[in-house]
Amino acid sequence: MRIGELAERAGTTTRTLRYYEQLGLLPARRSGNGYRAYSQDDLRLLQQIRTLQDFGFGLEETRPFVECLQAGHPQGDSCPASLEVYERKLAELDACIARLHEVREQVGAQLVRARESRDALATAAEQPPRCELVAGTPVAEDETE
């Protein structure tokens, strides 16, 4: 199949496919007339790359999976290098989740403080205003009107 058809079937652009070729993730084969030629295996490579990207993997992180498929393995994640990338990604995700838990705790504590402050202000506003006049102090006649 030609580059346009592969791009359409993979749900991407021809520009992206050329970029993957530049990176060495997609083989660049040419037919007799000079056009790029692709196979179903290339479509599988692209599907593997896209799935991993959807999971948050960078393009370089997809390389071991692509190489595994290119080596003839039925799945891109059946090689040791692919498993190592999974392990690193899980460790990275665990660290992100731990950091998010910390931030959540901080935001929760700030919310509690903000509510307490709001409630204290509301309670203060409910109290009658304090009079500045001291009982028994004479008031001038023109000030009472």
UniProtKB/TrEMBL annotation:
MF-aspect GO terms: DNA binding; DNA-binding transcription factor activity
Keyword Transcription regulation attached: yes
Annotated InterPro entries: DNA-bd_dom_put_sf, MerR-type_HTH_dom, MerR_fam
Keyword line: DNA-binding, Transcription, Transcription regulation
Ranges where the record places region Disordered: 118-145
Residues of the HTH merR-type domain: 1-68
PANTHER family named in the record: HEAVY METAL-DEPENDENT TRANSCRIPTIONAL REGULATOR HI_0293-RELATED, REDOX-CYCLING DRUG-SENSING TRANSCRIPTIONAL ACTIVATOR SOXR
UniProt-recorded name of the protein: MerR family transcriptional regulator
Organism encoding this protein: Kitasatospora sp. CMC57
Native organism taxonomy: Bacteria, Bacillati, Actinomycetota, Actinomycetes, Kitasatosporales
